[in-house]
Design a protein that fits this description.
Elements (H helix, E strand, L loop, with lengths): L1 H18 L11 H6 L1 E5 L10 E2 L2 E2 L10 H4 L4 H4 L13 H10 L4 E7 L26 H12 L2 E6 L15 H4 L3 H21 L6 E4 L12 H14 L4 E2 L16 E2 L14 E5 L17 H12 L3 E7 L9 H17 L19 E8 L2 E8 L7 E5 L7 E4 L10 E4 L2 E5 L10 E7 L18 E3 L6 E2 L5 E2 L10 E4 L3 E9 L3 E11 L7 E6 L2 E6 L5 E5 L4 E4 L2 E10 L3 E10 L6 E8 L1
Parallel strand pairs: 1-4, 1-10, 4-5, 5-6, 6-7, 8-9, 9-10
Antiparallel strand pairs: 2-3, 11-12, 12-17, 13-16, 14-17, 15-16, 18-30, 19-22, 20-21, 21-30, 22-29, 23-28, 23-30, 24-25, 24-29, 26-27
Helix pairs in contact: 5-6, 5-11, 8-9, 10-11
Bound molecules: alpha-D-glucopyranose (GLC).
Length: about 600
Amino acid sequence: MKVRRILALINLLLVISVTAPAQKQTNDRARWFTDSRFGMFIHWGIYSGAEGIWKGEKIRHNNDYAEWIMYRNRIERDEYLTLLDRFDWNEIDPEQWVILAKNAGMKYLTFTAKHHDGFALWNSAASDYNVWNHSNPQRDILKELAEACKKHGIRLGLYYSHWIDWEHPYGWNHAMELTGIAPEKYDIYWQEKVIPQVRELLTNFGDISIFWFDMWIHHSESVVTKEQLLQLKSLIRELQPDCIVNSRLGLSIEEDPDIDFKTLGDNQLGRTKEEFPWQSPATVAHSWGFHSLDNQWKSTTTLLKSLINNVSLNGNFMLNIGPRANGEVPYEISQRLLEMGQWLRVNGESIYGAGAFDLDKELHDWGKITCKQQDGRTTLYLHVYNWPLNKQLTLTGITTKPARIYLLADKQQSGLPFEHTGAVTKISLPFLQPDPYISVIAVEFGQYPETIMGLAAQTTDGGFALRPDNLLKSDGKITIQRKEKYGTIPEFIAITQNQKITWKIFVDTPGEKSVDISYSCQAANPKGSLTVRSGKTELTHRFVNTGKTIGEPNENWIIDQFSSFRLGTLHFPEPGFYEIELEATPAKKEQFDFQWIWVR
Ligand code: GLC
């Protein structure tokens, strides 16, 4: 009995230790954050009254972030306040923002308590440039928001512009690049505004889950000193030890591992899997603050894909709303958020508490995978962006047989038929996808699934595209030439002497398969040749001059042509792993630009 209990305990500990996404630098403070994955950003302040236009002139910058109007259009501190005349203090209701966040499936929000304009959206004792002094009836917007967050169970984060402050005479203002500012003066701003205000924010509004600073350059390139930043961080640690801090404080997570999460650039999505917590701040259109001329609305599907993409790489997604001066959230934004919420009510299991799965390459052409471990089970969530025409979904790279497979949208969780052979799982899908945006398939395993690294995946239509980015090995150093000229020149490997490149695939349907190759060769009468071999069969081909083509009409845009040639067929006698080798042998002074091999 005892032994069994100990075993159960060990099992439990194992589960707990792997349940947490494998983020070495996630401290306990940030665990709720990586579990939450989806949050709301709120940009609202005096600038919301301008709606991107000042005295009939649109904001002076093509990157028209409406919240920058004070700086861009050179508006004086006091005159800027006249924008408040447009605010309807009886109408504004911050609770509505919180309710929207809740309905959108967001777990936290980050509110611009003080943006670059230096105007505090609470009753600040440290600066009378604040909302309480300038609203009628008097309102403490942050206090109301904090109460609403508490009421609806949404965690509260605060954006605080520490580096830039256009209101305080000694706060950083980029116009000071002309004049400079003495460090002692900047420190006056720091000690009499930043520190006391951050203290107020950490004292008067209950639990603050995130402090979100906004300095996008390293402190060494700015007026702020590392000491000042550390002073700010220790204040947070002292007053609210559970509050997490972002890297735009000006300290990178590499420089200071005590920074809780990394903030990517504005609207920058993740590209690689990371082991530490990170987040993309994003907008539904372009501007953060409400801008009446903004019209680059991303679709709900695009926004969902951004969220899923980040989660599949262990990241978070924080999506912005820019309410108007009366507090109203533009329909284009609220509608998309509500649609995301609907999707999450059905499919949220694949997002909350989920993270990356350990496949080494961007394998699948149909969508993205997230992974979660709970109660001794591992579930992979396949987010199917393109419902396959033949209703067969191929999962490549996992050698453990799934225990069961079902659609998240199916409350009964009726099993979908599947076949598992070696490293390929073929799932039969229903004729119609259950979700108009992105349907999710749960693939459950009784244990953590084993994977094979380095495989090139089967595409949705049953072929193998063997490219520079999914090769297994090569017998010498290769350089991948990235796309050029807007992709009219594709990615390729330039080969000038004998070179072997190998891919590994898993074939579940054996037999004869045709082999095509795409390359460019500009030698006038090429003498070189290539061989593609697998097992005992091989195909050879003498290089052909592929000539030139026009990349773009009417632009005198002449580029090397990449053409594809059918080499013949290779035989794959039985289901299993196969290596496919390309041996290219250019003659002297010949160049062979290899693009891809297509086996099907
Ligand atoms: C930039 C802008 C700012 C916006 C922020 C959101 O730092 O200066 O206006 O608040 O990005 O990520």
